[in-house]
Amino acid sequence: MVYITSWDEFVERSVQLFRADPDSTRYVMKYRHCDGKLVLKVTDNRECLKFKTDQAQEAKKMEKLNNIFFTLMARGPEVDLSEVTGKEQTDVQPTKRGRGRKQ
C-alpha cells in the first residue's frame, strides 16, 4: 500500500489505474469520526493507492474525485475528463417565503 501525499498525484494515478482495468478497480472511502481522519483507497488487487487526510477542506476535493469516478464508470474509461468540472449542476432553489406564522 502506498500513501500518496499529493492530492493531484493521487487523482492522476487513480484515474490511470481505473482506465487500465476498469472491471476490477475499486474505490473505497473510510472516515473515522473519533479521529477526524479520511482515507481514500483505489485498488485493482495488484496496486493499492491511498490518500489520508485530517483536513476538512479535503472534503470538496473528495467530492470532485467522486464526480470523476462516477463519470468514468457511467460513460466508460475512454471519456474526456476535461468536461468534468467537479461542481454539481443543480439549480439553485429560491428561498421559500410565506411559510410559518405572520408577524
Automatic annotation (TrEMBL):
- A Pfam family that the UniProt record links to this protein: SRP9-21
InterPro entries registered for this protein in UniProt: Signal_recog_particle_SRP9/14, SRP9, SRP9-like, SRP9_dom
Keywords from UniProt, A to Z, are: Cytoplasm, Ribonucleoprotein, RNA-binding, Signal recognition particle
Q: Which residues form the signal peptide?
A: none
Region annotation (Disordered) ranges: 81-103
Task: Give the principal location in a single coarse category.
Answer: cytoplasm
Q: Does the keyword Cytoplasm apply?
A: yes
Does the record bear Ribonucleoprotein in its keywords?
Answer: yes
The SRP9 domain extends over 5-66
Q: Which domain of life is it from?
A: Eukaryota
Where is this protein found?
Cytoplasm
Q: Which Gene3D superfamilies match?
A: Signal recognition particle alu RNA binding heterodimer, srp9/1 (3.30.720.10)
Query: Briefly, what is this protein's role?
Result: Component of the signal recognition particle (SRP) complex, a ribonucleoprotein complex that mediates the cotranslational targeting of secretory and membrane proteins to the endoplasmic reticulum (ER). SRP9 together with SRP14 and the Alu portion of the SRP RNA, constitutes the elongation arrest domain of SRP. The complex of SRP9 and SRP14 is required for SRP RNA binding.
The entry assigns this protein to a family as follows: Belongs to the SRP9 family.
Name used for this protein in its record: Signal recognition particle 9 kDa protein
Q: Which organism is it from?
A: Stylosanthes scabra
